[in-house]
From TrEMBL:
Its EC number is 2.1.1.37. It catalyses: a 2'-deoxycytidine in DNA + S-adenosyl-L-methionine = a 5-methyl-2'-deoxycytidine in DNA + S-adenosyl-L-homocysteine + H(+). InterPro entries: C5-MTase, C5_DNA_meth_AS, C5_MeTfrase, SAM-dependent_MTases_sf. The keyword Transferase applies. GO terms for biological process: DNA restriction-modification system; methylation. It comes from the Bacteria. It comes from Aequorivita sublithincola (strain DSM 14238 / LMG 21431 / ACAM 643 / 9-3). GO terms for molecular function: DNA (cytosine-5-)-methyltransferase activity. This is Cytosine-specific methyltransferase. It holds the Pfam family DNA_methylase. It is an enzyme of class 2 (transferase).
Amino acid sequence: MRLNYLDTMKEKIKIENIDGKLFEIKLVEPDNYKPASFTHYLHNNKNGISKFYKKDALAHVKEILEKQYPLEKITNKFAEEALQYLIFDFKKTVPFPATENPSFKFIDLFAGIGGFRLAFQNLGGKCVFTSEWDKYSKQTYKANFGEIPFGDITKDKTKSYIPDDFDVLCAGFPCQAFSIAGRRGGFEDTRGTLFFDVAEIIKKKQPEAIFLENVKGLRNHDKGKTLAIILNVLREDLNYYVPEPKIMNAKEFGVPQNRERIFIVGFRKDLGIKEFQYPEPTDKSAILEDILEEQEVSVKYYLSTTYLQTLKNHRARHESKGNGFGYEIIPQDGIANAVVCGGMGRERNLIFDDKLTNFNPITKISGKVNREGIRKMTPREWARLQGFPDDFKIVVSDAQAYKQFGNSVAVPAIQATAEKIIEHLYNTHSGIQPLR
């Protein structure tokens, strides 16, 4: 028998004892903090931050060893030796490993599947804490980065695992309204919202820079009050220099998707940074054809005749009322609409693809597979629309994958902005190393 890093990442471990009998052991559920601490320890064993995670990491390994070897006495020393071995094993199994000699450190809140992390790692950064509550997103994050995110960031217990001395806080927090009846619209007025938890972490940890991302609608949410409160809290209560937020479009940064999101950047005022220019659009343009699968895709992505007719009828009803709502087929030299979590997200990004040769359905559909060559994009194509590389693993169902990529950030736009942030920090002699 042997224990390796991949064993510790599974929900269940199958082991064979000396008599040849097979046993299946269910691992401890991630919400007890130990598995997350374990993976965070492996990622941070050389940078001094591992002390925040070592106690629970050792306990996690010890629990697994005790279950695998119930007749052995597992000492703390033996567990620590096993932990050091796992560090070596771990380096061989992670698709997107952490930077070996990082220039700066950051944390990834509301991490989703790691769009922020990819961007900052590409610039030489090291992620030292991750938080994400959705269990399916955690699976994808774990498969690609070898790290289990901590859970609910609203819990004080979760916040207690956030280390000190990181440089940038990243967060794509949800948009929520605030209750400001008769008050000034400050820090206390954001209580009960997820932005309050972000602000609380900023207040306690004082990172040099912050990078927040949200939907475009934040600008006009609650008649502009929501954004006004956020900026007031960051500028006045938390003492950060925050330039005017900017709406950034993914299509201007090399991916063929019309996706607008608001970016909010801030710097601690004592750094003396008094100006910031968001990145200009790149000269790299892309069209839908650039991201489409070259080979024939599964018949399951092709619409049935019944469903296609339903979409046509639905659009006709709306057009008769003067509305433009309905499905849309994107030309191969065109730009995709924003990929979104649900609703008509996939139907607004249909394509023509005449490569299908097998029209026998493999799922239950009403009617036959359409012969017009109309299909949904695949999850991999959605990943490409968001700037994820092809070796990014998709380990969940199609339904979950569409949701995850629809909720994610567009990596190239995030990375272009992150590069500007790091350049400013480097120029202030704050200890950040120059970009490689």
